[in-house]
Specification:
Layout lengths: L2 H14 L3 H12 L5 H7 L11 E4 L9 H17 L6 E5 L5 H14 L4 E3 L6 H10 L4 E5 L8 E8 L1 H4 L6 E2 L4 H10 L14 E2 L3 H11 L11 E4 L6 H10 L6 E2 L25 H10 L3 E5 L6 E6 L6 E3 L2 H14 L5 E5 L5 H9 L3 E4 L3 H4 L6 E6 L3 E3 L10 H17 L4 H12 L1 E10 L4 H12 L4 E2 L2 E2 L2 E4 L7 E4 L3 E7 L5 E10 L6 H23 L4
Parallel strand pairs: 2-3, 2-4, 3-7, 8-9, 8-10, 13-14, 13-15
Antiparallel strand pairs: 1-5, 4-5, 5-6, 10-11, 11-12, 15-16, 17-23, 18-19, 20-21, 21-22, 22-23
Helix pairs in contact: 1-2, 4-5, 4-8, 9-10, 10-15, 12-13, 12-15
Length: 549
């Protein structure tokens, strides 16, 4: 883009931007032209689009960033769309402790009240599951959660939930799905100058009753039982700490030992390179605390506490082992099935096939959906439980129709305490499941790109010429989900590969699974074979197929 065009776009935006700090940011970039041309071109490459995940992007001035002007337009479009659908009732707004979150929440409330819509703000920075709960509890028309979940500190986001009136029974309190996202985006595009968007009163701040209601309901997810359990915990600089502690206390557990350096919300996330429990090193301080405290279980939430990760004592003294999302997902499902919780147990097409095997053996209804909780909660009639491998678990869909790291944490603590009272552990339960169903080893291969066309090209090439064999076994099935979804699945007698573009990052992802039966009761040998098949066989084969080797 020519420098003069960039200057014109930036000056037009600057004149309409309501945030003095953002205006200063753009003025500084304009003063540095032409040196700042690349940065300005990126900021004005296009608007931050509203999709099924709402908005998410870097905090920066300009249309391709998260800022007060973009949020004002998004709020005006959303509220206009709700009115056009005939939606009645309040809009509930929650926010985390990231940079800008409270300002974005309050601005959304002002846009809502100016349009005649009641706006109810959660009383303080709180977990995303509390917002999802409040939408159902207060029969809201919709909810907005200002959060970027586990993204880097320079990001923020804007997630939208619908109430029962517009979301229907399965989507009451769930994230939006098409065509709502396209409708909201179209409404945003009709918003004129930001300076002309009316702003009203700041809305009504709810009191702590709504938080206590969530805590009491979350604690009631687990039945009475043994509570002798030492837990180490980290909210990872996020907003889950106080709510989790209150939930554990209400459920009868002792207060967890908390990583002091990560206990309070901090939008800079100073102790971790990336605030995601899945990332290497993110749980190091937690595991060190667990060792010092003699804990039975280590639990981490991501910063908005909708995800849950755990680690258990390892086979060597003093060692700890982080469980995969699939391992925790099946442990929770097995626990709920053993407790007799009725209904359908669901997961996604990229998660382990172990849940299907478990449900088949136990005579329990099973469902499989596309990735994302917006699909899990809508994809199964009579949902009892759902999970996805990316550390998301819904153990109480009538309470929170989304992933919920708080109820997942108290449920896995309930299982761990029950097993401890029997002289056993979570590791023992995993051994039992592997011995019965075979070792299900999962993994991933990711291809990060700068040029998104490489993803399209690679998917087209794999579709045209998929691998004929994997691990020396013939590929017996190639399932292509186009045009409904850009997903390709390959299956052999003992392996499965699901290839799809990421929905949130510039990545192409391959989800891998190897299943090794346990013969003659030799679980260690089966696990060794599964590790070798994954690390020395399937992963390099798929890397080569994607052009990474």
């Amino acid at each position: 883009m020519a420098t003069d065009d960039l200057r014109r776009l930036a000056e037009t935006w600057l004149a309409d931007d309501p945030d003095p700090a953002a205006r200063d940011e753009l003025r500084e970039l304009l003063a540095r032209l032409p040196e700042s041309a690349d940065e300005l071109a990126d900021r004005f490459a296009g608007p931050l689009t509203f999709g099924t995940a709402g908005l998410r992007g870097r905090l920066r001035a300009g249309p391709n960033g998260m800022n007060l002007a973009v949020v004002t337009r998004a709020a005006a479009g959303l509220i206009g769309w709700l009115g056009a659908q005939g939606g009645q009732g309040p809009l509930i707004i929650g926010y985390d402790a990231r940079y800008g979150s409270r300002d974005f929440a309050e601005q959304t409330a002002r846009v809502a009240t100016a349009a005649g819509r009641t706006a109810l703000l959660l009383p303080r920075p709180l977990p995303t599951p509390v917002l999802a709960y409040a939408v159902r509890k207060l029969d809201a028309v919709a909810g907005v959660m200002v959060t970027a979940s586990h993204n880097p500190p320079q990001d923020n986001g804007y997630k939208v939930y619908l109430g029962a009136q517009l979301g229907g029974p399965a989507g009451a309190g769930a994230q939006i799905v098409p065509p709502a996202d396209a409708g909201i985006e179209a409404a945003i595009q009709t918003v004129g100058h930001v300076a002309e968007v009316p702003l009203g009163e700041p809305g009504t701040v709810l009191d702590e009753t709504i938080v206590q209601g969530y805590v009491d309901s979350a604690a009631a997810v687990v039945a009475a039982g043994p509570r002798d359990l030492k837990v180490a915990y980290t909210p990872l600089h996020g907003v889950g700490g106080k709510v989790l502690a209150a939930t554990f206390a209400a459920a009868g557990f002792a207060a967890p030992a908390v990583v002091a350096e990560q206990a309070e919300p901090d939008p800079a996330f100073p102790t971790v390179a990336f605030p995601n429990p899945e990332e290497p090193g993110a749980m190091d301080l937690l595991l060190a605390l667990a060792g010092r405290a003699g804990a039975d279980l280590a639990i981490a939430n991501d910063p908005d506490a909708d995800r849950c990760a755990i680690a258990i004592p390892g086979s060597e003294p003093g060692s700890w082992r982080a469980l995969s999302g699939d391992e925790l997902g099946v442990l929770l499902a097995d626990h709920l099935i053993r407790r007799g919780v009725p209904g359908t147990y669901a997961t996604t097409i990229v998660s382990s096939t172990l849940l299907r095997a478990l449900c088949t053996a136990r005579g329990v209804p099973y469902a499989e959906t596309l990735t994302g909780f917006k699909w899990i909660v809508r994809g199964a009639e009579g949902l009892a439980y759902g999970y996805e491998e990316a550390l998301g678990y819904c153990v109480a869909p009538d309470l929170v129709r989304d992933k919920d790291g708080i109820t997942a944490a108290v449920t896995i603590a309930d299982l761990a305490a029950t097993l401890k009272a029997e002289g056993r552990s979570l590791a023992d339960r995993l051994d039992e499941l592997d011995a019965e169903f075979g070792v299900h080893r999962t993994g991933q291969v990711s291809m990060r790109v700068e040029d998104l066309s490489l993803i399209t090209t690679t998917m087209a090439r794999i579709r045209q010429d998929p691998p004929k064999s994997l691990l020396g076994d013939a590929v017996t099935e190639v399932e292509d989900r186009l045009p409904d979804a850009d997903v390709l699945t390959l299956r052999t007698a003992r392996a499965r590969v699901v290839i799809r573009p990421s929905g949130t990052e510039p990545k192409l992802k391959a989800y891998l699974e190897v299943v090794e039966p346990v013969t003659d009761g030799d679980l260690a040998a089966a696990r060794s074979r599964a590790v070798a098949a994954m690390d020395s066989g399937l992963r390099p084969e798929i890397s080569a197929a994607l052009g990474l080797a």
